[in-house]
């Protein structure tokens, strides 16, 4: 079953083709990072406008790179929640229109669940070997051609490895159930225990800031660019993670998280370090820091943030004895998280490639396949957007 996945919940416009929930044919991601970096964070109106500009070319490019036509596509999956309302609307309206036009079943899916399903992608089609029909000039008549993307072609990058023709390092096998998932992104920090596809419960979640949000906010205090996660992990490479000892939040449930106290602890330590009191404004901090201070703060913050995630994950593995563990979401790209987890987990773990950890259409297509096995498609005119839908309320969690 060949699924077109569409993702536009935040600041990445993406479309991908995935077969049977595990075989990657294409994954095109248009990132708006450069646009938002200027403002130090995502500007919702700007994000929505950018999605509108590129959504159709991104979808066409994904089909072109996968060497498929509409006849080959069996269904469409789209992220309908959670996220920025204007951004979600663009992907959902595109998906609804295409489902109607080409008479394809439509599966609206949850973005954070999607992140988790990136771990189910274990194969990649080698286009030089395959015999799928190539998009012909006739098929594309009257529609935007991939070649017409020239002005935005730099931003419109398909999976880097994909373009080079060599496969990214995909996991060697799909996760097995029961499966514990640590989902950590710019908006979510959750531990989820899956009994099976569509059967899971949340063990815990963040009570305030998501861990990715904490990376972004601390990066801002340090004068590092947006998005903060990659910038902090790069700066941390040359820093001393033991220079500053930050406290870990003590919560009632061992599986809940809280990162706002850690963020404030970093702010207070920075103010102390430059000899100012707690009234010193955070936006004036970067001008008073040197590179060595930035690196030590980045490393110390990252160590505590990651240890918090790993402590909870290891505890859950010991208590619930899952057969597999996966990590998902933008923060799953973090190398320190992977290092600490691999070192401390009592069972083996494999990781999705970085390009499938941050927002992408492939994870949506993979999840759409498993939805299609469990629930009927949603009638096109009933597919709506839900900016703050929790994983507790998704359609197939029965
Ligand atoms: O999943 P994602 O691409 O978008 C959301 O659904 O939020 O996650 C974005 C978040 C941002 O907060 C970003 O700073 C963080 O993931 N991130 C990282 C890394 N790469 C991205 N955090 C830590 N280390 C990284 N290497
Ligand atoms: Zn995401």
Q: How would you describe this structure to a colleague?
A:
There is one protein chain. The protein is α/β, with parallel strands linked by helices. Helix 8 (260-273) runs antiparallel to helix 9. It is globular. Strands 1, 2, 3, 4, 5, 6 and 7 form a seven-stranded mixed sheet that branches. A four-stranded mixed sheet has the order 10-9-8-11, with helices on both faces. It folds into two domains: 2-171 and 355-393, Nucleotidyltransferase, domain 5, CATH 3.30.420; 179-351, Nucleotidyltransferase, domain 5. Helix content is 38%, strand content 17%. It contains twelve helices and eleven strands. It binds 5'-O-[(R)-(carboxyoxy)(hydroxy)phosphoryl]adenosine and zinc ion (ZN). 5'-O-[(R)-(carboxyoxy)(hydroxy)phosphoryl]adenosine is lined by residues 10, 115, 185-187, 212-213, 215-216, 227-230, 233, 329-331, 333-334, 358-359.
